[in-house]
Design brief:
Blueprint lengths: L2 E6 L4 H11 L4 E8 L10 E5 L16 E4 L11 H21 L4 E5 L11 H14 L5 E6 L3 E2 L7 H12 L14 E2 H12 L8 E3 H9 L6
Parallel strand pairs: 1-2, 1-4, 2-3, 4-5, 5-6, 6-9, 7-8
Helix pairs in contact: 1-5, 2-3, 5-6
Amino acid sequence: MKKTAIILGATGLTGCLLIKKLMVDNRYETIKLFSRTRIEGLPNTVQQFIGNLLELDQFKTDFTADEVYCCIGTTAKKTPDKKMYRNIDYGIPVSAAKLAKENNITTFLVVSAMGANKKSKVFYNRTKGEMEQDVLHQGIQHTSILRPSLIGGEREERRILEKIGLKVFRLMQPLFIGPLKKYRIINAESIAQAMVNLANTTSNTDVIITSLDIEQLAKSNIKKD
């Protein structure tokens, strides 16, 4: 039987790549997108539910699937207000996990960040760490938390300073060897592929997936059902 997948954060870099991958994957029959804005030009196999994700409960009836891919995330530049930042980076993934549990969805994958730590003094890291803790608290059978390092890839929105920073960081990549290897830039393409592979195998036992492991999972050949 073919599956249904939910994507949160479909308008972001990783989410966009996930849509493309799932649309051509014959294991999936329906893809549900929950977002604030509609994406034009998608086929009928993609159902779009538009609304305020900070009030995710409004979608409870439609929030049914085999898997949830949560790629929600903002930046301090886009969301300088810390309360709103937390509402997005903590509130939406945790609300999604609660709905998934209530609706008997058994696979939940969420993109977090390297450095996530609920005890951190750094607001960003602490927020991510608390999100991870409360997602895991839901007890969803197959939960995977991906902790990528700096994410690379072509974004539609213009982020001039970020692009410059990425270029400089890319030039430094050969210096990241040994213990520093985990800080290498990871492409959003690898994150999206790793999530699809994780959702379609029961062999992986790690709940927390580090950046280096994400790269390996993206390259792995998962046998299709």
